[in-house]
Every structure is written in C-alpha cells, then in structure tokens.
Amino acid sequence: MGSDKAVQSAGKAGTLSEEDKVFLQGVVERDRAEHHGRLSYMDIMFELEHHYGNSLPGAVLGEVARLVGAPASQLNGFVTFYTMLSTEPRGQHVVRVCTSGPCHVTGAPSIVAELKRLLGVGLGETTSDGMFTLEASSCLGICGVSPALMIDDDAYGNLTPEDLPRILDAKRAGGAQ
Amino acid sequence: MKLFSTQIIVPVDSNSVLQGALEVKHVLEEMIGKYNLGSQISVVETGALGIYDQGVVLAVFPDDVYYGNVMPSDVEEIVTEHLLKGRVVSRLTIDRSLSSKRLVEKETGKSQQKIVLRNAGLIDPQSIDEYIARDGYGALAKALAMQSGEVIQVLTDSKLQGRGGAGFPTGLKWGMVAKEQSDEKYIVCNADEGEPGTFKDRLILEGDPHSIVEAMTIAGYATGAHVGIVYVRGEYFMSIARLKKAIKDATEYGLLGKDILGTGFQFDIEVYRGGGAYVCGEEFALLESIENKRGTPRNKPPFPPQQGLFGKPTVVNNVETFANVPPILLNGSDWFKSFGTPSSAGTKVFSLSGDIVNRGIVEAPLGITLRELIYDFGGGVKGGKHIGFIQTGGSAGTVLTEKYLDTPLDFASMKTSNVSIGSGVILVASEDVPLLPFLEEVAHFFWHESCGKCTPCREGTLQVKAIMESLANRTADPDTLKRLGRLLNTLSNTSFCGLGQAAPLAFESALRNFPEVFDQALAESHVPEACQEEA
Prior knowledge:
heterodimer, A: 177 residues, alpha+beta, Glutaredoxin, 2 domains, four-stranded mixed β-sheet, B: 535 residues, alpha/beta, Rossmann fold, Ubiquitin-like (UB roll), 4 domains
C-alpha cells in the first residue's frame, strides 16, 4: 500500500491533497465499520503511519481529528503517548532493539553498540540517508530467542553482533516496504 | 474427511518462524509433492511446542519421532529415508518431545501438567474443527445449559486466581459484575503482555486462540455481558491474525453472534491493539486505551467490575486466566483443585529466559520450585556455569540468589518467602552477568514506562535510575543506599498504580539478597567534582 509515499514524511505543516482527504475518510470509515460503530484510534494510526512513511504528520492528525470529531490536541496527546507511534519523521525502516532484562542478560548491550556503530547513529536517531531509525524497545515478547530486535514488522532473534550487517543489508536492498 | 497414514507436525509461532520454520515447511511440502506422497502424508501447522533451543522441530506421527534443528537442506533426507523407507534419520532426532516432557519424565519422573496449554502444539490453531475435536466449545455448551449463577459458583469453588500477576479470585470478580444492574457490560481480555521475560500469552493466543474465544463467551453468559474485547500488544501480529480468524470461524459456526447454539444468547468479540506502553497492562490504563485515550490509570475505587470500560461493569482477565476456564467447567472444580497448593489451585505457565539451556514455556502445578523449573525443565545454566542471580515475576519482580531454589512458587510465596511469582517470569543470569548494570537497565525500563500521571512514579523512577547509574559507574556518594531505601519506600507507598508500587521490588530484593554487591560499589566509588546526582 502506498509504496510511492513511503518516504514522503509530509512535514509537520504540509497541506493535504484531495486524494489524501479521500484516503483518510476511507480509513476512518473502514475502522468504524470494523469496530461496530466505535473507533480504534490505534488501528487508524498504525495504518496511517505505514502510509505516510513511519510518522504521523500534523496535517494528517488535524484532518483525522476533524473526521472523528475530537480536538486535535486530544489526538496529539494520544499519538505521543504510545511508543509505536511517532509524530517526528522517521526512516524508511524502524529498527527496534530490545534492551530489557532477558535480552540484557543474553547480550543486548553488544547488539545495541554494534547497531550504533553500523548505522552511525544513536538511539532515537535516523541515518543521514533516511533509511533507518534506531530505537530502543522495552520487550518485544520473544524472550525465548533473546537477544531480539524488530525491523518494521519483522522480528529477528538469537542475535550476535556478526548477524547484524546481513540483516541490515537485506532490509536496505529490499528498499521501501 | 481424508485419512492420512502419517502426519508431520510443524510448530509455527513467532519464535519458530525466526528459526526458519516456514522455509522448512515449504520445502517439506515441495518434497512430499516431488515424491508423490501427498495422498498419504499430511503436513500440519501447529502452535508452539514451547521450546526454542532446538531450532525448527518436526514431529512425525504415529511414529512419534521428533527431529530438531532441521534445516531446509535436511528435509529431502527425512522424506526419502524416513517417509519413503521407514528409516529414522537418527542424526536429527531429539530425545525430548513436547517441551522436554519426555526427557524430564525419563530422568526425574516429573512431567508438565497441561491445562492452559492443553492444545498448543497439538492442534492446528487455525482450525476450529480441530479445536472442537479436542472438546472445544463443549464447556460453552455445558455453561449455556446451566444457570449463570451456577457457572460462577463452579469458578468460585475452583479457587481460580488471576494469572496476570495480582492473583485476584476470578469467580469473585465475575460475581461482582453479574450483580451489577446495567444496560451494558463488557468482558475484556488483557493480552497486552508487556512484562519483560513473559511470552506465555503470545503462545496461548498463537497456539489455541479458540480457548480464549470460548472462555470470554462463557464469561459473557455468566455475567450478562454481550460484548467482549481482546486488547493485544501491537507487536503480536500472529496472535492478532489467529485470534481474528478464530472469531470469524466461531461466528460462522454459530458459536458467537446473535443466537449462540440456539439458546438466544448473544455475544460478539472485537480485537483492539496496543501501541507499546507497558502501563497498559494495568487494567484501568488498558480500558482508557480502548477508549482512545492515553493509557493512564484511574482512581480506585470504583473498580472495573463496578465502573470499567465506558463506565460500565467490566470483567478484565488475563489470557492465561481465561484459558483455564473451559477445562474447569468441563472437569469440575475438584479436579482443578487437585493441582497446586492449598493456597493456590491449578497450574501456572512459566516463561524461562536468559542463560538457561532450554528457554521456553513450561506449565506446571503451582507449588513447583525454582530448582525444578531451572534444572529439570530448563536443563540448568548454559555452559555448565553457576547461577549469578535469578529474577522471578518480571522486571517488577524479585532478584534472588541460589538460596531460593527450593522455595515453592505460588500466589502466597511473596508473603511467606519474599519470592514474587508475578506473570511467571523466570529469568536466569549466569555468574558472568554483573548485577548492577542489569539493575540499571531495570531502572531505565521503569523510568521509560512510567506514564507520568503521578509525581512519585514519574520523578521517583528517574531518581532510582540516576542512583543505579551512579552505583554501576562507581560514582555513588556514601549516603546513596540510605537515599535509595527512602526512595523505594516512597515509590511503593505513594504511587498511584501498580507500576510505581511494584517498581521497587527488584531493587529492594537485590539490596536484601546481594548487600555485598552494593557495599563493594560504594567502596569503589569516587564522587566526581560535579554533583553526580543531576540526572
């Protein structure tokens, strides 16, 4: 869906096209139908985040607020609370590396250090080519194969620092999802 | 129905997929086609077996042969040797079947007791027919033929307690909701499994999603609710997909929807997703999140059974709690109480992680000891090393020494022996893992996950983090431990919700059980010129 828009992180103030508005209305209506007349902001935001290149531009949030009849501030409060959602532009791929207890014990610190070195960024930062954003995560729920990370929707486990270049290269070669 | 002479079971879940289970399954199907065995051999995808250190596992029935660490390149050999010629490929066999059960039974006479995981790894989780063939929806039919009060009485008699961490009696909770007069009531399943080291709910949802659908429907009937909501962690894609399919299939079979099994009872279930917030495991924060708000806790009382989702009476139960309900209704409360200890009936699903030989999921009667879990089921510490420390219950759980290996684990063990059971996390760290950097990470976790609503937790977790950093970096001042003790006390006594109240557990227990580690850090500390307390 919307691969042509994957790197269009629309900016905070960007204006929306008619096409965008029709798309947003469709997303909201589909969600309303799925939840029997209620809405799940989370489902809506996940879909929009995919569509708009891993972040939620302010103009998009404004239009969604209008469509669902909520103040934009409330929507902004919602989005900024949950770590899987972002209002800041992120890279084409979001790398979420787990740093919590079970991963820590089995080597997460060396995984984090190698990711920082390979990508040349710190936690919370995006590579200069806009390809990867590196984030720390509080448990991904796959502690049976720790240390673990996720890139976008794909999980990787039993990691060693030596595995990382291959994983990143494969994602890089896959281009925008 | 087509009959096959041989079945090959491939466990496919989030963990095994990472080890290549789908590739192996794909090659297996290709090879079965290539050798023209399609009419005799069926390949069945199941949920987790619960063990992850054997790579991709294939089980061949009725031969009862288990292959481990199977690579796609091994598959042709298994097909040509075993399936065509009947010669077991011994270089790939593993001497342990479902979650190390066979090995453990052989060597120690101990076996897992599977109530919650009765179907995981045995049936195709995406097939409602296979669930029904294993008595699935039989408990619902039985419940619908009873008075709703009788259903609750069976649960109350069974002494089932909540498996999410707090251990509240389930029958009592359902009874409170049943008593409320309201036009609407809700059944909510807490599947926002976020406690680091817990991955049991994921395996239940991936391995046996219909058990949750059935149990929630029973809860709806017992309490007078018609809407169920499962709140699942955002990262659990496979859980969400399998649950949605289970809901769809159950609706088509008349087991959900307007007129369930022709009784006139109506119940529907929806799936909502989490967004990566640990605090949403707290029941009120979870309900706020379903209401499209920031996931922050509410004041108690009123509790959810009085005013829960959208202000209506609401049952909130953990996935594992629900999974216990159908077997209890089918087999009776006395049967359930025959497992466990006098204070805690039934089994618990434990998640074994860290430096342990067999990481994975074990279901055992409550009252099992850490030694049995770590050594009999877990196979001991990796590399034959000694235990450095054990954390039980999760990040919000106790940090223990080997001294505690023989403490029985049940819902009373926190009170009786300062060992928390929480959500069933058993995290083992070998002697090579330094304690203070680990605690620094735990402190970072709570600081990051504090929702910020109340001051003790928002500011307190920040200060705990700063103190743990100073101890790990050897820049702590001599008064540090006194300050830490006061801070932990404040956190547990004045935080608004369970997150802040339970955050001190790890640090308090570490101070109690490893005082020498803290003393050494203080002795080695040099307070820098600039005040180290600034965070």
